[in-house]
């Protein structure tokens, strides 16, 4: 639409492409199976639901401004220093804080080819320039990132495991990238899917060893609280102090704080969800491959199914939809021949495989 007169957004804002979220409805299907947003199919811990309901009764009071209870719980469960944690409205908000605080006009924010869609949004919202670097076979390419660094680079975002590719790079590669950072540059390790990757600390040890590495985490995935909007960043004290200056004092609601704290303490719930996810992820990926659909090994709670071309991916998407199943077509991520399928409950994954089996047989 043409701009009406002198009221104009800041430069770069209108270059932002609206975020394309996963669909949640199919016409003609009253209760579709939604496997499009990498949500926990088992929902939140029952303890979190109880805690949120209790907090709701006290909703006339403003919530904590310093999130001390939630930070202490996260610190206790993951062995972190509570003073080095900042909580946000999803890790999305932490990503925004980082861009606002560290990148502005003339600065560059690096991310990779199939990187998460919030990085360029947050970079442009801060007036900075997002710069995309090539990947190698749907995997973060550290050499390409290092080659992409310029004197204007202020932030580098990588998600490990990556969304939507579900691939990972090993800790040695991440350290190599951290070693190559110029003085003015922060490395952000987006750990939205860390819990699903066995034996990976999300970059905790690197964060603690450096003054220029930050890890972000979320309650939206394994904790089953995507609707609650809670995430956090773990970083060096100078970064956390900086981010707290631009954080709204009441960014997290009392319900969000209570629900997330109960969720992080319910370690048995998380362990059981992870156990089922690992088993079902292998079954789903194996089933796809048996049908001739390529699929990288996943370290997350979703798989990326690769078809022979865009038309084949579209046909599979349409076929799944006709069976009442919603998956994600990651076209906006430059993967038009792929479908991203969240690992569901065992019966959900069986439905996906049955639907695709029928399609291939037809
Ligand atoms: N990073 C990655 C890689 C993601 O996939 C997501 C969720 N889609 C997020 C961050 C943001 O998650 P949230 O804001 O719900 O914490």
From TrEMBL:
<keyword id="KW-0032">Aminotransferase</keyword>
<dbReference type="GO" id="GO:0004400">
    <property type="term" value="F:histidinol-phosphate transaminase activity"/>
</dbReference>
<keyword id="KW-0368">Histidine biosynthesis</keyword>
<dbReference type="GO" id="GO:0030170">
    <property type="term" value="F:pyridoxal phosphate binding"/>
</dbReference>
<keyword id="KW-0808">Transferase</keyword>
<feature type="modified residue" description="N6-(pyridoxal phosphate)lysine">
    <location>
        <position position="221"/>
    </location>
</feature>
<dbReference type="GO" id="GO:0000105">
    <property type="term" value="P:L-histidine biosynthetic process"/>
</dbReference>
<protein>
    <recommendedName>
        <fullName>Histidinol-phosphate aminotransferase</fullName>
        <ecNumber>2.6.1.9</ecNumber>
    </recommendedName>
</protein>
<comment type="pathway">
    <text>Amino-acid biosynthesis; L-histidine biosynthesis; L-histidine from 5-phospho-alpha-D-ribose 1-diphosphate: step 7/9.</text>
</comment>
<keyword id="KW-0663">Pyridoxal phosphate</keyword>
<feature type="domain" description="Aminotransferase class I/classII large">
    <location>
        <begin position="33"/>
        <end position="354"/>
    </location>
</feature>
<comment type="subunit">
    <text>Homodimer.</text>
</comment>
<comment type="similarity">
    <text>Belongs to the class-II pyridoxal-phosphate-dependent aminotransferase family. Histidinol-phosphate aminotransferase subfamily.</text>
</comment>
<keyword id="KW-0028">Amino-acid biosynthesis</keyword>
<dbReference type="Pfam" id="PF00155">
    <property type="entry name" value="Aminotran_1_2"/>
</dbReference>
<dbReference type="InterPro" id="IPR005861">
    <property type="entry name" value="HisP_aminotrans"/>
</dbReference>
<dbReference type="InterPro" id="IPR050106">
    <property type="entry name" value="HistidinolP_aminotransfase"/>
</dbReference>
<dbReference type="InterPro" id="IPR004839">
    <property type="entry name" value="Aminotransferase_I/II_large"/>
</dbReference>
